[in-house]
Known about the structure:
alpha+beta; disordered N terminus; globular; 10-stranded antiparallel β-sheet; 30% strand; 9-stranded mixed β-sheet
Amino acid sequence: MRFRLAAVVCVxxxxxxxxxxxxxxxxxxxxxxxxxxxxxxxxxxxxxxxLEVCSDSxxxxxxxxxxxxxxxxxxxxxxxxxxxxxxxxxDSAKEVTISTPSLKISVGKEDGGITFAGxxxxxxxxxxxxxxxxxxINGEKTYRSEVVAEMYGSREGFYGLGQHQAxxxxxxxxxxxxxxxxxxxxxxxxxxxxxxxxxWNNTSRTRVNNRFVHVMYISSEVADxxxxxxxxxxxxxxxxxxxxxxxxxxxxxxxxxxxxWQCKNRYKSQEEILAVAQKYRDxxxxxxxxxxxxxxxxxxGEHVFNKNYPDPxxxxxxxxxxxxxxxxxxxxxxxxGSKEYAEMDRLGYFIDRTKVPxxxxxxQGMAVYDPTNPAARKYYWDLMDxxxxxxxxxxxxxDTTEPxxxxxxxxxxxxxxxxxxxxxxxxxIFPLMTTSAVYDGQRATSDQKRVFILSRSAFAGAQRNSxxxxxxxxxxxxxxxxxxxxxxxxxxxxxxxxxxxxxGGFFIASPSDPGxxxxxxxWFQFGAFSPVFRVHGSRFNPDENELWSYGPEAQKIxxxxxxxxxxxxxxxxSLAWKTTSxxxxxxxxxVMDFRQDVxxxxxxxxxxFGPALLVNPVTEPGATTxxxxxxxxxxxxxxxxxxxxxxxxxxxxxxxxxxxDHMPLYVRAGSIVPLGPEEEYSNQKPADPxxxxxxxxxxxxxxxxEDEGDTYNYEKGKYATIPIHWNDATHTLTxxxxxxxxxxxxxSRTFNVTFVKENAGAGVESSTPDQTVQYFGKxxxxxxx
Length: 785
């Protein structure tokens, strides 16, 4: 029987399981009843399993051991109403099935197991059983929830789950704890090379355990129900798009945020920070942003600059005159003795600080605010607005957003009561809520400056708050550097597109040490192709972290990659629009674009940066070559333009040259890469002329995006796109008619077109064009031999 679902509800399929939470493999179906919005299937015992088909490729699974689904406040999932879905429900002697054009869900009548299948691929995921174990946690009667996923004969790869520092890329055969800690970011989004994703909708501490490789256990410490979304792709971009449809889209940063960020631990005065900014301009080294790390305050939480910053308003004005943006470190901890502390304490805005044991030395006697309280979130933003945003601060470094757990193993939220409820129930949600305070606050205050938040932790949904996460306080050594790459790639496929590291590591090294200089250069090369490009760290001998601190030979290499980043801004900013408008992911593990290539599935130290660039960081000291993998395609060496055609049934491993000034970088055939003019900050010049590098060997498309560079007018349609197409068979490049407009848009522009080949269209410097197109917003085509 076929039916069309109501537009405001999902298809609901309800199964009843034992009220005592004892799953029975032979608990037979008692009856099947069709409802206006789905079907109700009852078992002979009790409880309920509800399947909600939200779209043709997304299903919501809810399991209650009592048959009752309590209404609870939803903090993570933002989409609860869905368009109507064509679905077919069938009831046979052995199973109940729901079918959409993209997905078939079957529930066995004998065992209650749920099988998910794609339209042509057959079974891709098997939820064999769900277990709810009664518990009393933090004074609350609740359950420990668990799903047992059966995977007999499976060799699939598992990815996502946030950011973790063990150096593991493919989690097949591994166990991952999802709890917030410095350097560990919990995001309960799992992707499979079989073409599906599981978004586990639980905010307590969670574990994904696949150590016994035929079974995966997904469990959480506190739950009323099992609650997860199954998202079918099969391609990862579609899975991530489904995750963002559920939890929110990622807004655009200002164009300046995609440039270079100068930072160290820490600038100690107004005089120092202005001097560093001036020297960058005097040396003509590209940079847009400078960062004020902690202890600019008198007392933590009062948002008042100390005596080393005698006129912060003038400091910000001077930085803006030099075309710098300032990001300021803000913590969620408050120190006794300030009026802010006293007022928040009086209003009950703190998590119960009396039960916070063994805080680190720099937090003793302090209290952390409760961002699950809407009034506390508003108060927190109001402090930032009055003390910093109204002075002209441009970006927010929200540090210790786990919140900080140093000095003890477990989260300080455990055992506490939050405004939202038990701290154990909401143990992982702090970073989502505190970034919401700042994003919502700034958006309500002004639409003239886009929000940028750098957060040490994140959770599902944080992408909607304009959050870029960084990998935390990692060590300044080669092993830590190597581990950042799979950590960042797994974070990226968890659905949050913006991520970065402390280039060079945080703890602790000297720019005068030749070994560290080599590490810093290699890390910087990798950072130039990270979504956010930022140096940071504790340094000594000298206590500097600017590019000139590493000596003239290193500076030359660093500036080369800095210049390349700025030349790529038209490409990067267009990817940013694609990220916002199409749920794209700019930092792309190979499995995203080559999902069925077994080698690509298991490579976590190479990645695509957008559709064109294959990035191969060098993570071994003293290396002069880099062992890497080229998937099946035609590739061009970015530095020489030399093509390599990888034919046959799979890709090929090779050892590429990698002297210190050279990180191997390849471009896929069919790519169209727009390069802007050299500039010292992101809006120094109009992006004109644009050098269009076309890489023959396959058809290709690219959409060039432009807007005002800041403000939220792009949300009102004030932007322009120029679609560009390469037809490889006819060797024709078509620059299509421009769509849209915005204030300040170039009405006419120049495209210098280079068809890349050996020693033509290679490296950082501008190439001599093969043809030049004067573009006036109307379609223009050129053909080459």
